[in-house]
Each structure stands twice: as structure tokens, then as C-alpha cells.
Amino acid sequence: MGVLFAANIAGTALIVYIGPPGGVMWLSAYIPGCFVVDRGFNYFLCWLPAFGFETILVTIMLYKGLRSRDSLRGLNSPLLNVIVRDSIIYFLVIFVALLVNCLVWGLSPQTFNVELSGCWTIAASCAFGSRLLLNIRERYFKERTLVSIDTELVLMSV
User: Fold this and answer.
1) Residues 16, 25: Cα–Cα separation, whole Å
2) Which of 16, 42, 45, 126 is most buried, judging by how many CB atoms fall within 10 Å of its CB?
């Protein structure tokens, strides 16, 4: 997983380093912060490594989730259902956000401030990643509570 993440970062860095054909991207000396002022036609390609990384992650999750479901042979695992459901929702939201970024960065005029579109991707990633973790935690504690209640009832009835 770490290798895939490193490949994602390296791919993005390579695209930024190569820059637009016939020019170099430069940052504004007048605007405080790190804003790209001159972006080339191919700068939207920076979002493609993230597309690939997220697609590989959801593919691995689906493969392992379906394989685990098959190995349980009919046993229902609410925790596994939550993981698969929320991972798919996370992927769909991030996929749409990355697609919008590619379209905005690729089709907008040079004077349009494209930095704003990247903020939505970061916010969606944080919100839906947190949602995934909180739902997994909630389901885990619900199952744990149910198991401990069942155990106590069995012990009390004996």
C-alpha cells in the first residue's frame, strides 16, 4: 500500500515537474501562499495519479470483501457490510470530486482560479474518510456489546 501511495505522489510530482509543453509553471511572487499562476494545458493530468490510486484501493477492498464474504458461507457480517458500503460511497464521492477537478483544470480559462476546486477534494476526502472510520467503530462496538450481553445472559441463566 505504501508503494502505491509513493507511486501516486511520484506520478503527480513528475507531471508538475514536466509542466506544460513549451513552458514552465511558476508561482506568483505577488500573492502570499502557493498558488499556480501560469498553468499549462496538461496541468489537469496532476489529478490522474489520484484517480488510479483510489481505483486500485477500491478494487482491492472489493476483492478482499467479496472473498471474505464467500469464505463466511452465508454468515452475515455487519462489520464487513459497513466497510464495503462506506468504501464504495467514499470512492464514488472522491471519484466525482477528482473528475470535477480534471474538468475544471482542463477546460477553464487560464485566468480562472482553479485552486478552489482542489479544496472540495480535500474536504470530501476528510469527511468521508472520517465517516468510514466512525461507522466501522460504531459497528464494532455494537457487535461487541451484543456479544457481551449474550454471554452475560447465558451465564446468568446457568
Assistant:
1) 8
2) 45
